[in-house]
């Protein structure tokens, strides 16, 4: 029987995400799914059937912006938690120069990676830009409360910005999910909160060394 610090085979585990961090992530993820399907339902008649996930067209129009506020607040929590892990450094610049090695899984030739690699960091900032675009444009086109404060030209531009930001966000999340499946063990890290020593040493060696050093100290 495995202990909290070991897997079922007795191999030692390292905590990558705390319960609060995982809860924060999954709240954001659930909100994203609800917003994606409801937003697509309102975007084009061919996808109107997706409104069923929020109880029909009227409820979709009512709930969509409120869920959007919840997602933004939850995502802001993630930004606050992980901002300090996403600064671009010299190792990240070298990682990007060796993108060929990255795509061919030659991780032994790459510089030592910390908590996140350069690709994850760039995605982090794209998500921030998309979320801010969605929030600002969403407020402008929120007819029940704010749209009447703005000229029609501004509302129309905000609608385009909202659609563009949503497109970028959806594409970014697809990349995020694909990468999670590509690097085996990543999804388990966000579900269970732990990774094996081998996983950490292979994919994020600098972070692994920092964690081990803290444990020894």
UniProtKB/TrEMBL annotation:
Any one GO MF annotation of this record: formate dehydrogenase (quinone) activity
Alphabetized UniProt keyword annotations: Cell membrane, Electron transport, Heme, Iron, Membrane, Metal-binding, Transmembrane, Transmembrane helix, Transport
Annotated membrane topology: Multi-pass membrane protein
Domain of life of the organism encoding this protein: Bacteria
Cofactor or coenzyme needed: heme
Chain segments annotated as transmembrane: 26-50, 62-83, 122-145, 157-183
Broad class of where this protein is predominantly found: membrane
Gene Ontology annotations of biological process type: anaerobic respiration; formate oxidation; respiratory electron transport chain
A Pfam family assignment: Ni_hydr_CYTB
Any single Gene Ontology cellular-component annotation: formate dehydrogenase complex
Cytochrome b561 bacterial/Ni-hydrogenase domain residues: 16-193
Keyword presence, Ligase: no
SUPFAM superfamilies linked to this entry: Transmembrane di-heme cytochromes
UniProt subcellular location: Cell membrane
PANTHER family: FORMATE DEHYDROGENASE, NITRATE-INDUCIBLE, CYTOCHROME B556 FDN SUBUNIT (PTHR30074), FORMATE DEHYDROGENASE, NITRATE-INDUCIBLE, CYTOCHROME B556(FDN) SUBUNIT (PTHR30074:SF5)
NCBIfam families listed in its UniProt record: formate-DH-gamm (TIGR01583)
Family of the protein in this entry: Belongs to the formate dehydrogenase gamma subunit family.
Listed name of the protein: Formate dehydrogenase subunit gamma
């Amino acid at each position: 029987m495995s202990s909290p610090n070991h897997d079922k085979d007795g191999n030692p585990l390292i905590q990558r995400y705390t319960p609060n961090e995982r809860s924060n992530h999954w709240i954001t993820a659930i909100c994203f799914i609800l917003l994606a399907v409801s937003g697509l339902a309102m975007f084009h008649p061919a996808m109107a059937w997706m409104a069923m996930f929020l109880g029909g067209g009227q409820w979709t129009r009512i709930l969509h912006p409120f869920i959007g506020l919840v997602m933004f607040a939850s995502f802001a929590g993630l930004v606050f938690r992980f901002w300090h892990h996403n600064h671009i450094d010299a190792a990240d610049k070298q990682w990007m120069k060796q993108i060929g090695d990255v795509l061919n899984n030659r991780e032994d030739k790459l510089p030592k990676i910390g908590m996140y690699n350069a690709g994850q960091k760039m995605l982090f900032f794209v998500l921030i830009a998309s979320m801010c675009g969605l929030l600002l444009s969403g407020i402008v086109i929120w007819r029940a409360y704010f749209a009447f404060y703005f000229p029609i030209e501004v509302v129309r531009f905000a609608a385009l910005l909202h659609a563009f930001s949503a497109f970028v966000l959806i594409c970014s999340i697809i990349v995020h999910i694909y990468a999670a499946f590509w690097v085996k063990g990543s999804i388990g890290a966000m579900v269970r909160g732990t990774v094996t020593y081998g996983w950490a040493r292979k994919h994020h060696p600098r972070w692994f060394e920092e964690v081990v050093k803290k444990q020894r100290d």
